[in-house]
Design a protein that fits this description.
This protein is mainly α and 163 residues long. The chain is 80% helix and 0% strand.
Length: 163
């Protein structure tokens, strides 16, 4: 069970990273004219890239904190739903097998079936730390790489370029 949870955690990190990368590339691409104006006004490329990173940090800090709270609330509900589905499937299978083997009514008892009755789902602060570090690093890298594509162009190219 823990192995599956770890695989789900890693898979969700990879999927979120890919989705975040796509969204940031599209977001920065939509700001071409702004970058052209800022370059024409004389701002350095480092200042513009720093502005993008600062904007993303201001958005991501509340988002990380909110996601931690929402994940804590949803973890219990998801765990209970998964446990209910698994337990009901096992109970049905055991009932069919016990009727075929002519076992008594005790076959459906919790101690006889040895199934889980409760899952305590908890979001650890260490998991939040991993998400914040990976997400923050990804935000900074993607914003710098995406902005470099725009920042290598001349201001005139960015202001004339119509899509």
């Amino acid at each position: 069970m823990f192995q599956v949870a770890n695989y789900l955690f890693i898979g969700s990190l990879i999927f979120a990273s890919l989705l975040l990368t796509l969204l940031l590339v599209l977001w920065l691409n939509a700001r071409r004219r702004e970058v052209g104006i800022l370059l024409a006004l004389g701002l350095s490329k480092v200042q513009i890239a720093g502005q993008f990173v600062a904007e993303l940090i201001m958005i991501s800090i509340p988002a990380f904190l909110l996601s931690y709270g929402v994940a804590g609330l949803l973890a219990k509900a998801v765990g209970d739903t998964v446990l209910k589905n698994v337990t009901s499937g096992i109970a049905k299978q055991m009932a069919q097998e016990s009727s075929a083997a002519n076992l008594g009514g005790g076959a459906e008892a919790e101690s006889f079936s040895k199934t889980l009755t409760d899952i305590h789902m908890d979001i650890q602060p260490s998991q939040l730390l991993v998400i914040v570090l990976v997400g923050g690093l990804l935000l900074i890298l993607v914003s710098i790489l995406s902005s470099q594509w725009l920042l290598h162009k001349k201001p005139k190219e960015l202001l004339v370029d119509v899509e």
